Amino acid sequence: MNMMSDAAVEKALDKKMNDVSYKMIGKDVSVYYGDKRALYDVNLNVRENTVTALIGPSGCGKSTFLRCLNRMNDTIESAKVTGRITLDEEDIYDPAIDVVELRARVGMVFQKPNPFPKSIYENIAYGPRIHGLARNKAEMDQVVEASLQRAGLWNEAKDRLHESGTGLSGGQQQRLCIARAIAVSPEVILMDEPCSALDPIATAKVEELIHELRTNYTIVIVTHSMQQAARVSQRTAMFHLGHLVEEDDTDKMFTNPNDQRTQDYIMGRFG
Amino acid sequence: MTNTASPLAGAVPARPARRDIGIKRRYAAERRFRIYGIAAISFGLLFLFLLLWSVGSKGYTAFQQTMITIPVEFSEQIIDKDNERDTDPTKLMTANYPVVARNALAAALGADPGDRQQMREIGRMLSEGVRSQLRNMVVADPSIIGTTQTVSLLAAGEIDSALKGQMNLDVPEANRRISDQQVGWMEQLTEAGALAKEFNTGIFFNGASSRPEAAGVGVALIGSLYMMGIVLVLSLPIGVAASIYLEEFAPKNRWTDLIEVNINNLAAVPSIVYGLLGLSVFIGFAGLPRSAALVGGLVLTLMTLPTIIIATRAALKAVPPSIRAAALGLGASKMQTIFHHVLPLAMPGILTGTIIGLAHALGETAPLLLIGMVAFVANYPTTPMDPATALPVQIYMWANEAERAFVERTSGAIIILLLFLIVMNVGAILLRRRFERRW
To answer: Which residues of B touch A (CB under 8 A)?
Structure first.
């Protein structure tokens, strides 16, 4: 009985281990901006359908790492990335991988809401249109509605779809940007401090949204707010001075971290 | 405060002495700066007003032209004595129309046709332009030969000036270009209602003429329009393409830095140098015709390109990076990002730069002098390859003329040029409004 029980536990544990599937794997990732090194051999895996929070003091490299995941660092001329990052076991820095296709699979939401100065409808429709995801107007209408529904913006925006997206409030704009990102059906959504320009109520709405999106998407979020990391994420990675300090379940990180630096940062002793 | 304090005042701790943090000085500095600014603007406005006043007061009379409206007998005796007009088509072209006009005026004045001295003076009251005026009437409708028609004949420049009061009639007769006899006739005609000022359409439509009353900016306008068209068609796409490549695609290295420095330098190169370049390359090497609007347009294109490139690059730079990041983050290619998002947002700036460049080119004179556009062109150019002049060059040529009537025409042409510039700048403002979007 006892043995059986142990075996069952073992089996359950095993199953849990096998259940963990990594959507993106970063191995020995280093980033240089000209002569300056911004990241030192980071090994960080992103689990599927999980919210992974990247925390750490300013300038620690968490945003840099995030931007490596959809190659947004390519747009910075002096940036050089070494190491290996895979998306579903494909090396995203492989010359055979097209960056446009990668970014259609790994979407991004930025720190400051940056809707296009076009109508709300056009903001959402732009991505599906350039990727040819809707064959006609009716399909496009559907995509736009579904994206806005998912982002929780449909009720507020349905009567003003053809008004400018820049006329929305800050929080609405950020949810519009999230809707725009999910309109192209990405697999991973990267969020770079998505709530730093929002008030607490708008922040709560976006956090709630992130929570819901987790069921369909893999999310990586950079945040400066410990509470936010604790609220929305299942895994947390702590960066410091370009190094990955540690990465673990969020619960464990916030209650019993392995590293003194994590402890200090979470307690607010630096950063 | 302390004098009127309540009995409780003693309990209130003394307020600390206020520190002198230079508030007064700061406000004084601000006031001084405002005064400097207002002085600078007033100075500028004063000169603008002086310019407009000087041009306007001299030039508005150019839009009126003295006409002598009299019955003209199209005498078959003078025009076609031997009735050869059906066999010899040049007959009507070469007939002695000035004599027809002179006789008509003599008849109106009741002068003796036998007095050759008087007849010569009467002839001088009419413009040389009556020759083509009457010829055109006859060629258009030969049946008027032998009839008498009431025609508004173009008065000579001297008569025009005298009627507009621009000529001092108090000086001795020998020192002016109009005789006492002619002054008397003018009064006679005015009383009869035959001499009057009419709106001068000729200044807009006529070509070059050595007679001020028959001269107009028509050919120069067409030349300028051709050149503006060529400049717009060439410099806008070339300039925008160059700017987009340099700003968005080109690697930032020593070569692109060098190109950038050189473009900025080109914008500062004196325009006459472009004229020399055009002379040697387009005329000397490529063998294009002199005085042609095509060559002028090409030279002005070269001159305008740096302006457009600099303005376009500034406009592209001013587009917030967040818009690029948004488009790239969605998986738009670089090309799509630029053409769908960056370029539309930069459009107001690009258009403003282009129109300023065009306006600059419209007023440019020096390079056109070198490529031979400073010419006497009486006939309209039908293609950009035909000889033409340009508005500013026409002004330059008229300013060199001695006759009094050309002075007002010079100012009149300047007014026309300024009107075109105002129209272009208003167009720039409207386009900018139209394309401006918030982000």
So the answer is: 251-252, 320, 322-333, 336, 340-341, 345, 437-439
